[in-house]
Design brief:
Layout: E1 9-12, E2 20-25, E3 29-38, H1 49-56, E4 65-67, E5 79-80, E6 87-89, E7 98-108, H2 111-114, E8 123-129, E9 139-140, H3 141-144, H4 152-159, E10 162-169, E11 180-184, E12 191-193, E13 199-201, H5 213-217, E14 225-229, E15 233-234, E16 239-248, E17 253-254, E18 260-266, E19 275-278, E20 282-288, E21 297-303, E22 311-317
Parallel strand pairs: 1-11, 1-13, 2-12, 15-22
Antiparallel strand pairs: 2-3, 3-7, 4-7, 5-7, 6-12, 8-9, 8-10, 10-11, 14-16, 16-17, 16-20, 18-19, 18-21, 21-22
Amino acid sequence: MNANFPNHRFVCGNLDLPFVVEAKVDEIQITLRTWTLSKDATISSVVSIDEAVNLYGCHAQPFDIRSGLALGNNGKSWIPLEALKGRFFGGSRSQNLYLKLVSEMGFLIERDIIGRAAWSDYAVWAFNCSRDGMLSMPFNRYIETQSSKQHRNMLLISRKEINVMTVNVAFAENRLSDCSLVLKYNPKYGCVHNFNNFKEMPVNSVGFGIYDMERFYGVKALLPSLRLSGPDTIEAERTGHYTVEMYSKNTDSLVDDVEAKVYLESNSGYLPHRQVIVRNGVARFPLYALGLSAGDQIKLKVGWRNYTGADEKIITIV
């Protein structure tokens, strides 16, 4: 775990779906399930705790989605809540509760399968489901919106999905134990999770997201920031030298214990390098004002593989 980005676990009761959400998260594996909740399942339709633990006590098969399973030999489909052996949060425990599986999804950090560009520095992974509780395969949200710059809410509308959980990946080398997670649930139904330590996030539908970090998450940033510096002017046909710093808003200090690849972009001039490695929190690179005249301008950007323009600078040719 990087000290600049603590591996927070958050739960947020703003899910408007009539299901119990279960999340099982380990070092490199995630299982999500949605369940129908009942307080009066007949005894004849409930499997034993031992049988239910055998079926659902472990992770789901990675990269597999199952739904509507009938358990046991006699069409039994309900399990006791106690069989999940996780922490039940929210909802009511005034009487025995029973669950019937709606959907199950397994995920594994296997970069040869999910793509090495997907499990990347500065990534937000979205775990979604449809309004009927059917889970879908998760994805790196910044890859999905890289070209369109579509807002996350519009992305959900276009996919006809509801977000159930997000995983914030600061660096590609992170395991899930290094990442901050936000699990959403309906307070009337509750959620089941295996988080040892977690915080409940305030529920507010206005401004919810990365622009209200401290108010909602209790920290300033879940992901690293880039800061571009260098001269505001370059003489025509000459060279300017620029610096990009990787820092944490949480500690207001350089992130000097992780190497990361930063991507460069300019609308004119010449960049001999389109990628630089940040080491000890700093990377330096030249920019050549070739073929430009006094009064011309260069827009220089630095960003991440799937999130461009984290910082930018306008440079005037003199």
